[in-house]
Amino acid sequence: MELKPHVVMVPLPFQGHIKPFLCLAQLLSQTGLYITFVNTRYNHKRFSNLSALSLQFPNLQFESISDGMPDEDDQPRSLTFDFFYGLKYQSREHLKELIGTLSRRSENAQSPPITCIIGDGSVSFPVDVAEELGIPVISFCCHSAHYLLANICIPKLIEDGQLPYHEEKDTNHRINIEVAGLELEGRLRLKDLPDFCVLKDVNDPAYQFFVNEALAMTRSSGVIFNTADDLEAPCLPTIANICGRAYTIGPLHALLNSQIGHNRSQLTASHGSLWKTKHDCMTWLDSQPSRSVLYVSFGSLVKTSSAQLLEIWNGLVDSGYSFLWAVRPDMVDEENDNGIVSFPKVLEIGPKERGYIVDWAPQERVLAHDAVGGFLTHGGWNSILESILAGVPMIGWPNLGDQRVDHTENNQDIDGGKGGVSKVSG
Fold first, then answer.
1. Residue ranges in the chain modelled with pLDDT below 50
2. Each residue's pLDDT tens digit, 390-423
3. Separation between Cα atoms, residue 62 and residue 60, nearest integer Å
4. What backbone phi and psi angles, to 5 degrees, belong to 31?
5. How much is the pLDDT for 154?
6. How far apart are CA 254 and CA 265, in angstroms?
7. DSSP secondary structure letter of residue 87
8. Given this model, what pLDDT does residue 230 score?
9. Which residues does the UniProt record annotate as the domain Glycosyltransferase N-terminal (predicted)?
10. Nearest to residue 255, comparing CAs of 276, 271, 243?
């Protein structure tokens, strides 16, 4: 067997991280590298296109490990302390066991020896395992470089007395104060910082845990970013000084699309969705005038109340514009007295004239469609990159994680946008 470089890739097990990881895996596979892509068992069962991808990319294989929760537990995973704690202390051991299995396969000439691990920069356990086993490791940052810098700056903000803050006790004036004394000065407010900054005490175990997780990628040999120099040039030198090397190779979805071409079935498979994509909405978009439709999607993790969903619905209807809205079945985060999730009936019925509602839309195709003139988004990094590439102006409704930082970073009008429906933002 020819000894190709063998890269083990370990994404955070959420849609917004898996997609860019999978794009990178396929691009590396095309260069001749042998890739082992590690899903959690829960997500492995949700992929329907693994066999198609393996045929399309012979150097790409898929393996799975536990995410620290019982394998029979089919409940959706969420961004909780318990979940991340399980990843760190249980998935770490399962990853070590898998690498041992892969090493034995290489001894039997079934696959090349492992030469590198590319781990998700949002968690520390791939770096921990690589260090313990003496394998070179590179971190892949699926969010923006500015968000990473915000995380790296947290110890300095604590030292300066700017953190912690507590939303219930601090005045609105204080949480709107811009972060001072750092490369992010003039761009971020305290309330735009990561969610775990909203705590009473820096000695809180959750606080310490998430700070250490965020800083783990500084221990790797370098950091890969799904971004471009033109988007985030001001913060990249600082990150490179801290992390050693910084590679800006994005937007990865556009690079992969250019390599694959315009074969729609291949493009759909290559971006590996955990959700069943509804393509019927494209026929509806075909019937709409140019730049007349507002596309609405809040990503794969944002949850909201039934009342908030209904408020958004009323706003969309009252705007007078046509809209395409992706509303996940698990988006409502509340139960009634009987323990049943209450989903607004009006959304189940759907609009009869100007609107179209789906569970999950083929977002890249939607944004590229001539009928779409604006995007109401949660501000996730994948959505921002896809919208910029499509030239579609955005209206932001950031909620969690990196979204407030991404929104702050990209809150200026995008020159050269399609125009049209974006004027609803005022």
1. 170-171, 173, 265, 268-269, 336-341, 349, 412-417, 419-426
2. 999 998 888 776 667 766 655 543 333 454 443 3
3. 7
4. -80, -5
5. 78
6. 16
7. I
8. 86
9. 7-107
10. 271
Burial label, 147 (beta-carbon count in 10 A; 0-12, 13-18, 19+): buried
Is residue 355 within 8 Å of residue 323, measured between CB atoms?
yes
Q: What's the CA gap between 95 and 67, in Å, rounded?
A: 10
Residue 338 confidence (pLDDT):
44
Place of tokens 């990628």: 217
Q: Check whether the bond before 155 is cis (ω within 30° of 0).
A: no
Find out whether 105 and 123 touch, Cβ atoms under 8 Å. Answer: no
* Beta-sheet strands, E only, within 253-411: 293-297, 322-326, 355-358, 372-377, 394-396
Q: What is the DSSP letter of 76?
A: P
* CA–CA gap between residue 344 and residue 306 (Å, rounded): 6
Report pLDDT for 296.
Answer: 94
Catalytic residues: 17, 120
At CA 67, angle to CA 239 and CA 382, rounded to 5?
45
Cα–Cα dist 28/33, whole Å: 6
At a CB cut-off of 8 Å and minimum separation 6, what does 230 contact? none
Domains and CATH numbers, the chain: 1-274 (3.40.50.2000), 276-417 (3.40.50.2000)
The answer to whether residues 332 and 342 touch, using CB atoms and an 8 Å cutoff, is: yes
How many residues in the chain? 426
Give the CA count within 13 Å in the CB-facing half-sphere of 196.
Answer: 22
Separation of CA 314 from chain center = 28
pTM for the whole thing? 0.84
198 secondary structure, DSSP code: B
